[in-house]
């Protein structure tokens, strides 16, 4: 239900072109948002590495070396894909003692059409879904706008965030009927994708198609992938998510800029809610700014 409301809200945001509201969000809040997102993604993967066995540590080290080293040799095939395939084969051949995907969850395609209607009469559930759905849509809108800014600079191609929001909204509504989770653009993953050579929307189409095909045809193989390798890939993406403007931005005005960035990060990490940090700090920023301006006059 939350995914359905998220998709519907995204469509409304896109039609009303509310994506442009990202321009009123202070830069310090945006930077804090990006860094908090990177911290959350990074910390979520550490449990698959620490504490662990010597074998797992070895897999992690080799995976990092391959991910960062292979692009210097060739960019024809994404280094994370090569790393996942090679390390999975090595783990299987030598029966290495490392946690696999199947130890956490099975990968299978189970279309449960219109599962959302099982609880359509539950008002309390709809109310809860409304709160989370709108929050997810806000976070998605922010991430879409940030991703657009980054990719437009990298590819030198101007994109339409409103159209992106409407398209994602439609996709999330369809996903909700199938019992799936909502999704949005990710700065770190998108930047990583461009670095691997995916500079057009065709790469997004291929990614989605290959993912669906892999789950349907290669589910039994995907569960053999070592979690340490996947964690390594996601940690690499997490590092790409951190905003490289942070230090330079804080140096411009250490107290004001530093407090804005840190407060945004702290609220997001404490509440575990990306939208909460952005909304609260943005409101506080303009409230304080308004008070200072009145005192100055």
From TrEMBL:
Membrane topology (UniProt): Multi-pass membrane protein
Locations listed in the record: Membrane
Pfam families: Sulfate_transp
UniProt keywords, alphabetically: Membrane, Transmembrane, Transmembrane helix
Keyword Membrane on entry: yes
Domain SLC26A/SulP transporter: 2-54, 71-240
Transmembrane among keywords: yes
UniProt name for this protein: SLC26A/SulP transporter domain-containing protein
Organism, scientific name: Staphylococcus gallinarum
Lineage of producing organism: Bacteria, Bacillati, Bacillota, Bacilli, Bacillales
